[in-house]
């Protein structure tokens, strides 16, 4: 199934007339990630020019295909590459964000922009707070629909969990340390 999903994503990008690269990134916990890179826009003449890298991070229960679903005229990745950015799309996980940041910074030799939605922002916040050295690798972090503050969500289970999160954290620490 993942191969079919990968092929569909690549086909979607190519169908819109854009180049796409598939990169395999190994995380600290030896998980192999697949990141999709759209290195330049459709009508670019200087394909070797240095472009600012952008990492797009999808939301909870999402998939990086969501960033492509509106097609060339309205989708954020195409908008960015047509304006001179180097765009990477990936799936999220505990070690994924730092691995993607390291890979992109090493590949482009530049700080990157991070654009996140929902859970993608939470992963970004965790990375930059738990590993403050990553703040030096980011130019700007743009967060849309951040899911970091749960106290004000009108969803009963989320509201309940937001009030007991400290208790859960202490319990986990006591059980597994």
UniProtKB/TrEMBL annotation:
InterPro entries: AB_hydrolase_fold, AB_hydrolase_lipase
Segments passing through the bilayer: none
Coiled-coil region list: none
Residue intervals of the Partial AB-hydrolase lipase domain: 12-69
Single GO BP term: lipid metabolic process
This protein's name: Partial AB-hydrolase lipase domain-containing protein
